[in-house]
Amino acid sequence: MNKLIAIVNVIAWAGFWAFGYLAVTAEGLTDTQLVVAAVLAFAGLVTGVVAYMKLVRVTEQSGYAKSSKQLDAAARERAQEEWGK
Fold this sequence. Notes:
Elements lengths: L1 H24 L5 H32 L10 H11 L2
Helix pairs in contact: 1-2
């Protein structure tokens, strides 16, 4: 499953850059073609970010990457109370 997410990630970012480049630099496109290129670029961006975040979460859970130093809710509340003093 991790390899599938990684493949989706690569394809999504490739689509983002390819269609984004077309939407920004191509001349002579109709408005419809421009909108389609922009929508596909946006879809690649969203899919790439989501797939990347899933990969980060999977690698942290598997121990392959160091986990982020996120605080739990109680520690976060305690830190907010101390900061305000």
